[in-house]
């Protein structure tokens, strides 16, 4: 994929995803990371930020098991979790197994790492894999 994906605020996130890097905005004033991308900091309301590569490490904060088919190519049951990243923000994402496919569930408090789920006409989606 060679064209820009997303709008002016989210395009850097998707550009990082295309390279297999998890990028978050980091406030230039207070240092807080944020996700989802926004034009201002949630901690101090400053509008200056820098896109920063983060570790992709996190902990399962909350989870649910999806039992109904929502998307083509994603057969239930599968687990969706809210992951609290080491840098602070929380992301909602699919939990995958070692093979990258929607896999075994997870428990609240499990350590996870970001992985990438390819898509045909768009940058890959961040997903999370339980840490062994």
Report how far the terminal alpha carbons are from each other.
Answer: 32 Å
Helix/strand-derived class? mainly beta
| Quantity of strands, as a count | 8
SSE series = HEEEEEEEE
Number of helices: 1
Give the neighbour order of strands across the main sheet: 4-5-6-8-7
Strand content: 35-45%
Low-confidence stretches: none
What is the alpha-carbon Rg in Å? 15 Å
Overall geometry: globular
**Mean pLDDT across all amino acids:** 94
Largest sheet: 5 strands, mixed, barrel
The helical percent reads: under 10%
Short structural summary:
The protein is mainly beta and 132 residues long. The protein has one helix and eight strands.
What features would you highlight for this structure?
three-stranded antiparallel β-sheet; mainly beta; 132 residues
Description:
- The protein is mostly beta strands.
- The chain has one domain (11-130).
- Helices cover 6% and strands 38% of the residues.
- It contains 1 helix and 8 strands.
- It has one helix spanning 11-18, and strands spanning 23-27, 33-34, 49-53, 57-66, 78-85, 90-96, 111-117, 125-130.
- A 5-stranded mixed β-barrel has the order 4-5-6-8-7. Strands 2-1-3 form a 3-stranded antiparallel β-sheet.
- It starts with 10 loop residues before the first helix and ends with a strand.
- The model has no long low-confidence stretch (mean pLDDT 94).
Question: Mind sketching the topology for me?
Answer:
Elements: H1 11-18, E1 23-27, E2 33-34, E3 49-53, E4 57-66, E5 78-85, E6 90-96, E7 111-117, E8 125-130
Parallel strand pairs: 6-8
Antiparallel strand pairs: 1-2, 1-3, 4-5, 4-7, 5-6, 7-8
